[in-house]
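Case study B.
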Amino acid sequence: MAQINPTVGDIARNTGLIKSNIHQAGESGAQLVVFGELALVGYPPKDLLLKKQFIKDNLIALQDIAGVCTDCAALVGFVARHQGDTGKALYNAAALLIDGQVKSVYYKQLLPTYDVFDESRYFHREISQQVFEFQDTRIGLTICEDIWQATELTSRPLYDIKPLALLSRAGVDMVINMSASPFVMGKHEFRRELFGGLCRNYQLPLIYVNQVGGNDDLIFDGCSCAFNRQGELIAQARDFTEDLLIIDTDSRESNRCEVLKTGIASIHAGLVLGLRDYATKCGFKTVTLGLSGGIDSAVTAALAVEALGADKVVGVSMPSRYSSDHSKTDAQQLARNLGMQYLTIPIEKAHRAMEEMLSEQFKDRTPDVTEENIQARVRGNILMALSNKFGHLVLTTGNKSELSVGYCTMYGDMAGGLAVISDVPKMMVYELAEYINREKEIIPSSIIHKPPSAELKPDQKDEDSLPPYAQLDEILKRYVEQEQSTADIIAAGFDEKTVRRIIQLVDRNEYKRKQAPPGLKVTSRAFGSGRRMPIAQNYQPRKS
Amino acid sequence: MAQINPTVGDIARNTGLIKSNIHQAGESGAQLVVFGELALVGYPPKDLLLKKQFIKDNLIALQDIAGVCTDCAALVGFVARHQGDTGKALYNAAALLIDGQVKSVYYKQLLPTYDVFDESRYFHREISQQVFEFQDTRIGLTICEDIWQATELTSRPLYDIKPLALLSRAGVDMVINMSASPFVMGKHEFRRELFGGLCRNYQLPLIYVNQVGGNDDLIFDGCSCAFNRQGELIAQARDFTEDLLIIDTDSRESNRCEVLKTGIASIHAGLVLGLRDYATKCGFKTVTLGLSGGIDSAVTAALAVEALGADKVVGVSMPSRYSSDHSKTDAQQLARNLGMQYLTIPIEKAHRAMEEMLSEQFKDRTPDVTEENIQARVRGNILMALSNKFGHLVLTTGNKSELSVGYCTMYGDMAGGLAVISDVPKMMVYELAEYINREKEIIPSSIIHKPPSAELKPDQKDEDSLPPYAQLDEILKRYVEQEQSTADIIAAGFDEKTVRRIIQLVDRNEYKRKQAPPGLKVTSRAFGSGRRMPIAQNYQPRKS
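Model:
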């Protein structure tokens, strides 16, 4: 079970990785090595798939890999051409490589088109015989979505066939699933329950190999695993890191079974991996971020240090006339605890210059959010200048609660290349802080315990503008993740005025999220490619 | 033929619009009034479709509309529920409303999943009988994509059925197509050729009703039309505006046939419509933009004045120490010609403040693009402050050539709510300027004839960094719109080094485009939802 971390589009590098895993597996006595979905091109390749040369390069690389499969066979995910006259020109496919050749090719049967998935944009779907004989074992092959069909766990079945039922009818001894299944909190527990149930139901053992690594907004957690026909776990690869797990399909005892992270520890590990991979796959060696003395930037800094090392992270304090003393000392203490580089660049000069430049235009107007945003945008300009000059990736530090209601400034605190915690609700940010401090105080407790504030005007507190975060997060979860209606949420016992106000804020701030940097997905529904809302729209639910 | 401009999601407003068109058509003696695809909810509704309440509201509204169909029948596009056990829960549907009731419902047969379309994300596809009898005429009903199947005009057929062939076999007297077909240059000419050929081929008359109006990045041009069975045009509605065209399906002579705009005039009309609708559907009354004295901002300003009126457009000159005198006078002259409001806010104070604030960090470094971006971001901050204070929509002025190669500054000149000409290549910007000046000089000729410059450092010219635009645009068209490979483009006779450099720039600047505001689509492939590239990727075509 070769759980590798491919780079999207980097066929040369992925080929090398696949070959070295085949070599290593063969050396360890493996007879068949299984890779994840589209391992050769990395998942998701998106519109790179529309380049003919890209498809050709991937086919040449597949032949190249076949050449090393002399002692050990391999199942490799790749993009096949669909030769038929009608339909999409490609298949999401897997090749069985034996004796130096591509022996046979199998196709994904179910193409997901929901959340972040757009597979029918690229791939043709063809119901085909997905069985091959290997060393006297009849193996049924499936790719990712093909086995996500259990009506008891998911909602309405989306497809008209059940590949596992077909394989069961065809009489196979074992099922293999090659996946690129993105992480969300609780996903591996969910998979275990789902897969265990499927194995029991069909009385078939299952080998599940998943991709690992971060690709843009998606984090793949790995967690490849195997089950016997009783649905018992018989092997478990690592989470959030590459792994090559050699298993004996006959003997449960001899296999390695890693213990996996759960809950907030898994979120932490996922974010660290997503951040590290985004930076390195984009070619950045260092990152920078603003340190406000608040909890969001503290958690983001700690994640960055964990991902890249303290010497690769530059924290920048950018105090204004409204910054409290504790903000500055807290930020400095945090940087010291993390051992990261720390700069202070006060924004007063540019802040005052902007006020003077706009004074004539604004002379008859009372201060409002405009003056707050100006400060945030001066800070954005500073961080981007440091990025341009020194080649740092700028990390933004906004959480999901703020981004949901638009409590953030475009081109200000939203300026940067990666939104590390933009899918982490505020209450979960606190959990992350506690987790980061599990062994010793890294994030100063004063940062954790002070009331959140943007410090963009005197004595400002988040809760002057927003309901308490515990309440806000619960409403947002229902509205954004669960698609509950206003009426549903009010019926669940939340204050009507608050619910209506929050929902209006979420709807009205779509334009801000349109321009947000990619954010690492950790919940079942993140902003970004998994939530595609029109901006110029005006849906007002009918009053019943 | 009711060519209406619905607002996405605004079921109440769209219902009113549909009812008033039915009323007016009935008054004019029409027996059947046909609306566009999903007219009731506006196209594309995107993830609003995932809200159960939204679907329910749309069904209630459909009943409401049926109630007014007493004298005149109507075909209305709406979202139907799919009652089956498996598959997506919705249909892209059309209802035949007669005698105050929903008499029958028809479904879209072919669901596009390419370019900007994601219909299999939402809709179930079901092959069904799409024929109804109306006043002794057997009518075959199709929805948009259902008739886009001509193998002679498009590439590889994407679908396994041809709805027109099925209808022809079922023996219909006429075909109706209800559409929401986005504008790109040359689209209506293409449609006429395609539809005329289909009518001749199947010996069937066709009535085609399209949506009109701008919805986010998409512009719908209307251009509804009708053909007889010889493929001759027998009626033509207006382009880029609402229209209610009453036609006699038996008599070619008595029908209205509008002359449509072509070429650059159609681009101009499309951009004006897209800009006006984005602003008004988002609730903005006024817009602002930076006037640099260059051609991009001049064309954008002229489009804005055309769309909203001169009193609704605020041009802002933000000269720096590098701005030439002619830039300032040209910008002022442009504003005077257009009759728009004109402000001057020099950026020197904030520019100098930023330099001072960063001087310690930058002290051992030579100036580079960093210093240029700082100025652009000060300007972005000014425009956004004016937007925040006065409620203007900020228009960005970058063209497609710049956006392609990243010759633009995030949070600087890319800051704003709508990118008006971001799908217009630079050479086409010149054509637009000539078109705008077709009757009198609105854009000063000095703006048109000076060499393009960002004026972010002394004596800067675009062509110091980029190849001549005529050449750049041709390479970009091949790479971005036509998906040609590096090798293809070089083989077509372009300089290898230039081609490789341009393609590398396009690929490397995906992160900038990720954060760009929505841009109005006018070419066959725009950046945005029609081009979905991964950011953290590293595809390098194999050297053959």
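The CA atoms of residues 300 and 397 of chain B lie 6 Å apart. The remaining cases will be described in the next quarterly update.
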